[in-house]
Amino acid sequence: MSLKNLPKPQKSGLLLIDKPADFSSHDIIAIVRRVLRTKTIGHSGTLDPMATGLLILLVGREATKRQSEFLQLSKTYQATLKLGEETDTWDRYGNFMGAAPVPPISPEQLHTAVQQLSGTISQQIPPFSAKKIKGEKMYDLARKGVELEKRFSEVTVTWSDVKQTTPDTINFTLTGSSGTYVRSLGYMLAQKLGTVGHLSQLRRLSIGSYRVEQAFDGNLLKGCDTELLYQQVQTL
């Protein structure tokens, strides 16, 4: 579909999508552009292809003008950390990089490790991320085999429902400020526990006051009726 000469959207506002796995956020945006027959669509923060959950699309000029406002909202996730195996992307879609023994972990040790990664902290930015270095995205540089120095950013995070469900699996809920990489927090938690790890599951539950329970099922987007999807757009 050519994006040239597409009409303005019938309605401006927010479209909440529950993104399925195996789709990039830009895949979802492209599908919604085709269904709504408009080019003017932004987002309030992307999700990795592995991740599922809330994706807020901004439809029309009035909504996209407020993109920076929505990008700054805090986000809450549910995640599963697989201990003992490291990947280059720090999630299960990455290439296997190596293994390490998983030591016995007491509830007290887990609590201490989580506390060390709570509040305002310096998180390591994943090498496979959209962060730019001299105008080039880090994941493009990583795919070219460019060796990157470790880079860090400051974020504020709160953990809850942290549970070790098996000797090598930890489930947790995390709320982070804008720019938080949950993959990074999982990677860093594994290091605090004396091993390596990667995220095997990630689901975004909320962005600000907007929750995934309010969202349209992304599996239904292909072939969706234009008028039906416009009914899901919330005016601002």
Task: Please explain how this structure is put together.
With 236 residues, the protein is α+β, with helices and mostly antiparallel strands. 22% of the residues lie in helices and 35% in strands. It contains 7 helices and 14 strands. The strands form 3 sheets. Strands 1, 2, 3, 4, 7, 10, 11, 12, 13 and 14 form a 10-stranded mixed beta sheet that branches. The protein starts with 12 loop residues before the first strand and ends in a 6-residue tail after the last helix.
Summarize, please.
The chain is about 20% helix and about 35% strand. The protein is of the alpha+beta class and about 240 residues long.
Major beta-sheet overview = 10 strands, mixed
Name of the CATH first level of the largest domain? Alpha Beta
Gross morphology is elongated
- The average pLDDT score comes to 90
Helical content (DSSP H or I, runs of 4+)? 10-25%
The tally of helices reads: 7
Please state the structural category. Answer: alpha+beta
Count of extended strands = 14
CATH fold-level topology of the largest domain: Pseudouridine synthase
Q: Identify the CATH architecture of the largest domain.
A: 2-Layer Sandwich
